[in-house]
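#struct-pred

JT: dropping the chains for the assembly here, can someone run the whole complex?
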Amino acid sequence: MSEQEFMITMKNVNKWYGDFHVLKDINLNIKKGEKVVICGPSGSGKSTTIRCLNHLEKFQQGQININGTELIDDVKVVREIRSQVGMVFQHFNLFPHLSVLENLVLAPIWVHNKPRAEALKTAMYYLERVKIADQAHKYPNQLSGGQQQRVAIARCLCINPEIMLFDEPTSALDPEMVSEVLDVMVELADEGITMICVTHEMGFAKKVADRVIFMDAGQVIEENEPHEFFDNPQSDRLKLFLDQILSH
Amino acid sequence: MAVYTFKEAKAAPSTSKGVLFWLRENLFSDIKNSVLTLLGIYIVYIMLPPLLDWMIFDATWSGTKEEIVKSGARWIFIVEKFDQFIYGFYPEAEHWRPNLVAFISIAFLFSMKLIPNIKVKIGIMLIYPIICFVLISGGWFGLEEVPTEKWGGLMLTILVAAVGIIASFPIGIVLALGRQSDMPILKTLCVGFIEFVRGVPLITILFMASVVLPLFFSDGIDFDKLLRALIGITLFQAAYIAEVIRGGLQAIPKGQYEAGESLGLSYWQGMILIILPQALKISIPNLVGSFISLFKDTTLVLIIGLFDVLAMVTLTTSDSNWLGFEIEGYVFVTMIYWVFCFSMSQYSKSVERKYNTEH
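RK: done, full complex below.
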């Protein structure tokens, strides 16, 4: 397959925090519409990997291409790429001084130059989609964690991204709220948006992922389609990891 | 095994238990508390009646100073000199101009709270100082020109404080952002400026503004004395504002910056739309604290020959016809300062409540 057909390519990406080598030769090719789940123990570089894709983290060596554009350390290129890549954070990171609706229309108006009326209409459409339209005029701190995360997902969708990055979207939620967020993500996955999701929700990975990637100590240890990944792990480290997270 | 039935919510127990209960709970809960309460009442009993007698019941409110018979405050001094306290040496026929500016300023403050449209707000913010300046200084539209040497009294105090507060605010924001910048030269300049100014007393800055600054300009340019004082005070205040705002900026979680960046907002968009509104909200109490000290510090303009309200009081008490009226003068000026500072503090509380989005 030629490079143009990949939505995301990472070639020998290396990153250091000071002397600490956090990412070691990451190579990753993701097709348009592919759903990839990345898992691994904490500190393994999963979050850092996806944060490199929208340049929240800089990398020192290697090459990243997003939708045909090479990601270089240039304000214009970075903004261009960020306008196509949505990111959902572990701690939601909604803007607490703005109402839910204002959170959603901010980027469409200021980054994508949409007229306000159109942005509001789009925002209401996506709030409807994440089943939270009745909370549009509340402030983020008045919502539950699950609701906030759904707002955060809607906020990304409002910029109509090609790629959605999820950075442990359910890790900060109370257990009873995990499923309402996962349901929204499953629905999104059905629509053909390219998704990379760092998560430990193995049920979600089995149901949605085209591919599961296991990382440890800054490297990709194993990747496979979900069925094989869970039922027939090859490396000892993955076997140990799966044992630990599935044992209870 | 046990399964419990679902319980309906009950009304909370009543919190109002009457005056006697409140007194016992708060003022006489134990012996120590009771003793302190009685001591407090005793101190008020000793101090309050004489104070009220002096200020109100035995005070002289009208007449001439030769007719004074009562032992209390002789407020006729204030009545006599009131115009000087308020307007300084501003020509009497033109007093309506500062009055109009005061009225416009109150309307301005209310419009800032009431008008929701941001563009209209910015428009008003830009026009307001121009209108005020033209009205006070004159020289346009057939208004008689009043040179700044004649400005004085409370009018000057408010003017210096208002210009100091308003002009230092944007400079302070820029300094605070510069101090956090990744660009080493910009950062060094901002840190250097802030630390230099904060390390020097305001008096020094005022002296420098009035004595040293003119040395940098050729003889032809005669800088207005008031303008020099305003520049000095603005730069002084900007350094403090910068540090207050930096505190607010540091309280904003990193996730807020990242969320803004990941949505594609530029640095300035992120700052203006996301970071600063939150940082300024957190900073309101400290900002107002800093504004209140500035309001009081404006008295220092006296030393470069400007007559603010305190200077006017000092000046009038040395009027040979009105010797010995210092107490009335200073009590009056104390009350003026208190009213303004307390109002600022209350205004800040209402702003804080308005922007509270927690509940």
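JT: nice. Chain B touches chain A through 22 residues (CB under 8 Å). DSSP finds 13 helices and no strands in chain B.
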